[in-house]
Amino acid sequence: MKATTLLFVFAFLSISTVFAQKSNIDKDIKMYTQVWDEVINKGDINQINATHFDENITGVSSPENIVGIAAFKGYYQNFLTGFSDRNFEIIKVFGQNDNIMKHWRFTGKHTGDFFSIPPTGKSVNIEGVTLVKMKNGRILQEQDFMDNTVMMQQLGLVSDPKNLNVVDAMYKAFAIGDIPAVLGNFDAKIVWNEAEGNKLADGNPYIGPDAVLNGVFVRLGADHEYFKLADIKLHEMNNNQVLATLRYDGKFKNGKAYDAQVAHLWTLKYGKAIGFQQYVDTKKLDEAEN
After folding, report:
1. Is the C-alpha dihedral spanning 236, 248, 218, 289 positive or negative?
2. CB burial class (10 A; 0-12, 13-18, 19+) of residue 70?
3. Which DSSP symbol is given to 279?
4. Most exposed of 13, 106, 212, 251 (fewest Cβ within 10 Å)?
5. What does the pLDDT average to over 4-23?
6. HEC string of 133-157?
7. Residue 173: CB atoms within 10 Å
8. Quick count: other Cβ atoms within 10 Å of Cβ 75?
């Protein structure tokens, strides 16, 4: 009988402990979610205080951690001054004991100084995960996991490494006459400019793939016995741009051939060409055509 009673007591205490822990983590999650909504979405940096954060709050980071309430406030102030139209959304959050995990999304427009990066006017849309440790109902430690390269790409400070492949594929398709494949890599609103002084510049700017097809590619085919691109070299630039240096090897239907030095500046976004600017020796083209 006594053994049964003891087992009942232990079971009751265990269940009570589980419920108490569940109640505590629910309170922690509610406080945590509300604090970051106030800080980021409402811009109240003073919510980072001793009421919500342990005095030894630590942001696990590289090359060194962010330690202390003052340092934490200074770090996140960059997001408030750096971005307008901020929206911080916690997509999913759950916890156990003193641990919280959140999956989040941040969007905003870079209109102010952000960790000494001057405003670019570009918008960001990034996701990440944060691991959180709580202590006595306050936030003790945070560690963010996100791809900083994606943010830098969206700010135009680091180019998408796939850009070179996209441009290279367009030149290879052009070389074999696969114009549909070239146009397939164009954004629907691509802005295309021929060099000033080039006869084809009369349609600048060409907007959209069809305009480029009819205003540039069809006219090139009609005017030439052959038109080739030679010695193509691609150079990755910042702000999602690719510079191509090359030569035009062509022959007009009047029988005159030419070999001209050329540069193409491509601008890309999300794997599509959104801008093109040609630079060419227009004098050499004009002399060969006339």
Report:
1. positive
2. exposed
3. E
4. 13
5. 48
6. EEECCEEEEEEEEECHHHHHHHCCC
7. 17
8. 14
Distance CA 102, CA 134 (A): 13
Residue 13 is predicted with a pLDDT of 42
The domains of the chain are located at 2-154, 163-289
Contacts of 285 (CB under 8 A, 6+ apart): 198, 199, 248, 258, 260
Q: What does residue 30 show for φ and ψ, rounded to 5 degrees?
A: -60, -45
Residue 246's beta-bridge partner residues? 262
- Specify which residues 53 forms β-bridges with: 139
In this prediction, residues 106-126 reach a mean pLDDT of 94
Residues 6 or more apart in contact with residue 47 via CB below 8 angstroms:
35, 38, 39
Separation CA 290–CA 256 (nearest Å)? 9
Q: Could you tell me which CATH number the domain at 163-289 has?
A: 3.10.450.50
3-state secondary structure of 115: coil
* Per-residue pLDDT tens digits for 129-145: 999 999 999 999 999 99
> What number is the average pLDDT over the span 157-177?
92
